Amino acid sequence: MDQLPLYRRLAAHYRAAIETGALAQGDRFPSVRALMGRHEVSLSTAVQLCRQLESDGWLEARPRSGNFVRRPRRLAVRPLAEPIAGQAPDPAQYVGINARVSEFIARGRQAQVKINFSSARSAPALYPAEALKNAATRALRQHPELLVSPPSNNGNATFRNALAKRAMANGMLLAPEEILVTQGCIEALNLALRAITQPGDIVAVESPTFFGLLQVLETLGLRALEIPTSPHSGISLEALQLAIQTTEKIKALVVVPHLQNPLGSIMPDAQKANLVELCRANEIPLIEDDTYSALSNDDTPLKALKAWDRDGNVIHCASLHKVLAPGLRLGWMNAGRWQSRVEMLKYVQSRNNEELAQLAAADFIASSAYDRHLRRLRSCLKTQRARTAEAIARYFPTSTRLSEPAGGLALWVELAPGLSSKALFDAALAEGIFIAPGLMFSNSNRYDGFVRLNCGAPYTPEIDSALQRLGEICNKLPSR
Amino acid sequence: MDQLPLYRRLAAHYRAAIETGALAQGDRFPSVRALMGRHEVSLSTAVQLCRQLESDGWLEARPRSGNFVRRPRRLAVRPLAEPIAGQAPDPAQYVGINARVSEFIARGRQAQVKINFSSARSAPALYPAEALKNAATRALRQHPELLVSPPSNNGNATFRNALAKRAMANGMLLAPEEILVTQGCIEALNLALRAITQPGDIVAVESPTFFGLLQVLETLGLRALEIPTSPHSGISLEALQLAIQTTEKIKALVVVPHLQNPLGSIMPDAQKANLVELCRANEIPLIEDDTYSALSNDDTPLKALKAWDRDGNVIHCASLHKVLAPGLRLGWMNAGRWQSRVEMLKYVQSRNNEELAQLAAADFIASSAYDRHLRRLRSCLKTQRARTAEAIARYFPTSTRLSEPAGGLALWVELAPGLSSKALFDAALAEGIFIAPGLMFSNSNRYDGFVRLNCGAPYTPEIDSALQRLGEICNKLPSR
């Protein structure tokens, strides 16, 4: 339990050997018997190793000849282009996204969906159901009056303690009392924006960004200013600077620094430092949505923007929804100099969170079992993303382009030139395949040529067939 | 378990006999031995019966003479006066209540509170802790993936089913899909107001009303128009009509028809019907906060305003927080013709509620154990209110006036003329007694002469001493 299974560790070793060139395309791969001897492993481990490499696209089995090294097809897919940063941004506008998003979601709910690539979520099987269930049962036994006592102000103390400890690894020094527990990260974002903006204000966001954020802006009467964002390094500081100089006062900036949704980009540390400073210097409150950072491939924790915050200008929002338990609505925030205001708003909006979920989660995240869970989850997601990318490389038109996120739940796919994600959505949904068209990720039509594909579920033949169908539809769709 | 304990039923019988005059003030009450024979009950039941009547103020024990019937002192306290309805209301204003409420609450938190009369809540001991704990444990066992699966849209189906069944008793015919589960009633009120108002709009509210609502209005940028409200029959329709005629357009009305907080009034059915019609005719969306109705003395369910709604103009909001489990943040709403809009807003604001609490509550409220719990809770609260009123009658200045709520958690006390609840708050808090001064229940200073006293905890000598101290302080406070 402490580690990945042996065959996965060996697979990582051989992947590295192929990537560095120690094993070249076309080379004969050691036989199962040779692997057993070389690594002193069982037959079953050696077989699993070969299967894993094959399913990830690194081996090709030739009948009666054995396994041969190959370069995965996905490596031949062109990566996404950098955005053009030097142009003035679109004028800020009241987002009109709710009607659009609601339509896509409503159609998905009404349809007979067989394969859902639309939501950014992992399969329940990837989460520690049993351990959390036991933790919750234990909490009920240890606190017999839990369900009939009013919940603690601002969150359960044990849970806030556990969060504060974990936050240290991300470079944040927070006292437990400086943490406010919320209904998921989305409530934290609502509270942050309510604390610092008035209806009509301009809020800068990444472009593309996740539709949940655009919906929050619209329902709060805020105007979204979309800032070009790199699929590799996150929000463009050059573009942001230009926006600061050329538009009305920006009242807040919302950024997903790690595994940006939908791009999957991770901001380099130097850029994070520059962003925090740029916002400080221009008196723009910086709201950080750090929902995904624990899903990065690398086990080394990423440093939050908040780690560079010296004067309370950064509002850090996070959640355990995607990383620990989709069934628990556990978010949290530190709002810097707006802390007492968000505490008041939280109380007025929805009161204090129930404590049972907090106690169960506190129990788990304070233990090393949480680290083991995260390592397994990251590894599974990596494989699932790789296999999805492999299928896209195989089935989609050759001019398709792909994000290369170093973690997370999803891929951002740029369809072949001229194809419309709306048209793909329509045709796919008719066959029970539900995707998130690029139109949902911006108030403009700029991303109609993109789709976000969720890779949260273990790869199955059904998923493979669905990706094949999507590719076939793309090959048949007329260009716009 | 199915009924109240025998001694309580007998106590109700004798209370009725005294109230109707069958037993008169000063009459000798039957001896314990006589009671045992007359009702064929045990010694312990007969003794408990006498104790209950004595503690409720209906019997006086004279040493070596036996028990004598008496009229409780509280019946001599003057009831609250009706509000003056024929005057034009104060101009609608942006509520400035947050600072005021926050100050009182913060001071309570910082103080060494020994007795808390401030919050409207019952003691945990009055709720079915064990049964709910077992229901939650069972739900965890029956749904092993519950904590790791995304919660159901708009709420858990079993829970919404159970709510819809219960709502029938309150005269509401709702399909389970027409019920949206929220984070307590307070989130439902937020969503209702967000769905139908814009910042700057005027919202009519009862006067006095609970500070939680005034806080919601302030944080949403709404203007509160306070409508005089009767301590007996609820909001004054005459005053409302006048306000409609004389002020700017009222964009919504929020009413607590049953056991209004803080007055404890219950609107008569005819008045509810008239209110629904008045709002319909004037195109004023009517938001009903029905948090307390299950706490009325009478076991016959009260009819919701929604029961008279024919065209979706009534938004019904309710919660299980006060009646079933203070530790569960379970509210729900039906928003009539704004249902799809509140569903969208709920999703954007905090996503779907976790399911564990919903399953545990569904299990319990679908059973007759819920009815038994409510009967016991009502009976306990009735006794607690009676004893608190008795203490006020004994200890407070004779010109004190009192609400006579037919249920609920609190009493609304009008202090002797010229006394300030702010001054009482200060003096009481210095001795560890925490009260809710009338200033918290309006944006005006109109209710500085009032306090709300919570009666949610079983009556103890400590509570009695605290009430005695409050009375002594009132007797010493200078008039304004």
TrEMBL record, chains A, B:
Which positions fall inside the HTH gntR-type domain? Answer: 4-72
Molecular function terms from GO:
DNA binding; DNA-binding transcription factor activity; pyridoxal phosphate binding; transaminase activity
Checking CDD domains in the record gives: AAT_like, WHTH_GntR
Which terms are listed as keywords in the entry? Answer: Aminotransferase, DNA-binding, Pyridoxal phosphate, Transcription, Transcription regulation, Transferase
TM region(s), chain numbering: none
Q: Which family does it belong to?
A: In the C-terminal section; belongs to the class-I pyridoxal-phosphate-dependent aminotransferase family.
Protein name, as recorded: 2-aminoadipate aminotransferase
